[in-house]
Amino acid sequence: MAGTEDQLTEAAINDALRALPDWKYLDGLVTVYKTSTAADALALIATVGQIAEEQNHHPDLEWRYNRVFVRYVSHDAGGQVTKRDVAAATAVSEAAARMHAAAQPDRYPAS
Questions:
Q1: N or C: which end of the chain has fewer CB within 10 A?
Q2: Closest CA to 82 of 8, 5, 4
Q3: What is the pLDDT of residues 10-24, one digit of tens each?
Q4: Cα separation of 53 and 43, whole Å?
Q5: Is the previous residue joined to 109 through a cis bond, with omega within 30 degrees of 0?
Q6: Distance between CA 96 and CA 51 in Å, rounded?
Q7: pLDDT, tens digit, for every residue of 51-76?
Q8: Domain of residue 36, CATH code
């Protein structure tokens, strides 16, 4: 469970985003991954789910054919970004790269 001591300042979020080019800040850490097929998108969702279970930190997900929209924010920290969000986003980025999913953070929010 995240506490207020885990909340990141705006400067810390910006620092974290320099190491997370797949992500941007928009009321949380957000991104969109584009895959080759809908089946690949579902496989990515399953992988994100596995990461979420391992870290006990679950993102908001939305699936649209071959795109997966991901948002991390710590609800138990008042909807703020925490170190757990950065760790989860890092793990998802690594998994998405292995799966050849293309990050399109500017496609978030879903429209």
A1: C
A2: 8
A3: 999 999 999 999 999
A4: 15
A5: yes
A6: 11
A7: 999 999 999 999 999 999 999 999 88
A8: 3.30.1360.20
Interatomic CA distance for residues 67 and 28, integer angstroms: 19
- Tokens of residue 45, six digits: 């969702």
For residue 69, the cross-strand partners are 32, 62
Nearest to 96 by CA among 27, 26, 41, 15: 41
Tokens found for residue 47: 């992988």
Structural domain boundaries enclosing 12: 4-107
**0.70 surpassed by pTM:** yes
Angle (deg, nearest 10), helices 83-98 and 38-55: 140
**What pLDDT, on the 0 to 100 scale, is given for residue 85?**
97
**β partners of residue 60:** 71
Q: Which amino acid is at 21?
A: P
Q: How many domains does the chain have?
A: 1
